[in-house]
Amino acid sequence: MRGHFWHGMGRHRRHFGGFAGGFGGAMGMGGKAFLAGRRLAAGDLQLVLLALLAERPSHGYELIKALEERSGGFYSPSPGMVYPALTWLEEVGYASVAAEGTKKLYTITDTGRTYLAENREAAEAMLRQLEYIGRKMGRVREIFGGFDDDEESDLGAARRELRAALREKHGASSGEKQRVAQILREAAARIRGKS
Question: Per-residue DSSP letters for 116-177?
């Protein structure tokens, strides 16, 4: 994967860029807001959380689950990322907080709605990209889930072994990635009976 993720709190950048995480480079907007790791830059996460709060007031945990569901499990921000972002939204007046026992319920404010309206295009583009990734992940699961649901079978074991081998190559050099890609192409051709 490319580059190291940077994460600094601060105001949202209007030219937030695109998503890259795991689907062959930048997708859609051409930037680096969602880099090779499975994280959004701070300003982008703040804006996405604000967009979710515009849909309904939520607890931090509910926002984490909403992002996980929209991305098909690909993007599940940690509480250590979400709660500081929510604190920032509260501090600048974009969200308000009400205590519900030991939990906090976050609600978008009128100021937050104004800010979101000014950045609506960016917010919607990021949410669309999360949903796009979710659809792609669903397709990948469908392919790897394949035609044999028996996880105890030889095929199930081979699929698990392949997934583990690919995970081990996370962060490999471009030359190593090319080598792995060639092996996968050759394997696909052999599975199809073309070699």
Answer: HHHTHHHHHHHHHHHHHHHHHHHHHHHHHHTT---TTSHHHHHHHHHHHHHHHTTT--HHHH
- Eight-state DSSP code of residue 30: -
Question: What is the biggest distance separating any 2 CA atoms in the chain, rounded to whole angstroms?
Answer: 64
- What's the full length of the chain, in residues? 195
Q: What is the torsion angle, in degrees rounded to the nearest 10, for the CA atoms of residue 122, residue 126, residue 131 and residue 137?
A: 150
For the stretch 28-77, pLDDT in tens is 333 344 443 445 666 788 999 999 999 999 999 999 999 888 887 777 88
Question: Domain 42-140: which CATH class?
Answer: mainly alpha
Structure tokens at 105: 């319920």
